[in-house]
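User: Structure please.
Assistant: Input sequence and predicted structure:
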Amino acid sequence: MLQAIRSADSWEEQTMGVRLAAKERIVKSHGRDESRLLDDLREGLEKGKEMVHVQLCGVKESLQALQRCAREVNEKYKTETKRLNELRTLRGSKEAALRRLRDKLRREKSVPKRQRPRPITAL
């Protein structure tokens, strides 16, 4: 493992050496202006990478906020659906009780007066 770390370090050093050698060759063959141009291009590329990274972080935060909002909406939907089912059940039981009372009233109206039981207060 130590050897891998050393080889990685040496690889970075080698690539740095290659970059410096390439830069020196450019300076010698094309002059300072092109070297400065390349430096400016590299700097612009780095700034571009940073901007992309910042935008990516913003997009990730927005995505997390949207996912959080979606979870909240889903939970609220489940809660409201459960409440709606409870209300439907309650309405059904109330309607059934109302039907029973109506049927009882119809039966009492259909019984002749003489057969009706007298209320306790009438005795």
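The mean pLDDT is 82.
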